[in-house]
Write a structure and sequence with these properties.
175 residues; mainly alpha; globular
Amino acid sequence: MLHDRLGTAAGRLFWLGVVLLALGVGAVIFPMVSSLVATAFIGWILLISGIVALTGSFSFHGAGPFFGALLLGLLSIAAVAFLLMKPLAGAVALTLMLGMIFMIKGAVELFFAFEMRPFPGRSGMLTSVIISIIMAVLILATWPGISMVVLGLLLGVNVISSGLGYIVVSRLMRH
C-alpha cells in the first residue's frame, strides 16, 4: 500500500527534500553558474553516452544496428562539440528542453499527487506540480529570448519546489 511505503520511506524523502532544497537555493543565488553547470553536466552525459554508443556499435552484427549505434554515438559527440563551441546557443537549446522536462515532471508529480489522494502531504506535491507547469509555460512562451541567467533561476526554483514537496510529504507521512 502506498501509505505504508511512504511511511517507511519518510526519512529518506525528508533528506532528499533537504538536499534538493539546498541545491535549489544555490542555483538561485548563483544562476549563471548553475546554468553553466547544467550545460556542462549535459555535455558530459552526452560525451560519455556518445563514446559508449560509438564503441558499442562495433559489437553489433549487421549493417542496420551497426550504423544506428554508430550514428547515435557520432550525434552525441557532435552535440558536445556544439555545446563547447557555442555555449550560449547550447544553453538556449537546453532551456527549451528544460521547459519540456518541467512539463513532463509536472504531469508525473500530478499522477503521484492523485495516487496520494486519501493521504496527507498531497498539497505539497500539488504545489510542486503547479510551479513546474507554470515554469514550463514561461520557458516555452518566452523561448528563445530567455537568457542563461533565467535558465539557472528557473532550474533553482523548480528544484526548491521539489525539495519542499518531498519535505512536506515526509513530515506528514511520519504522523
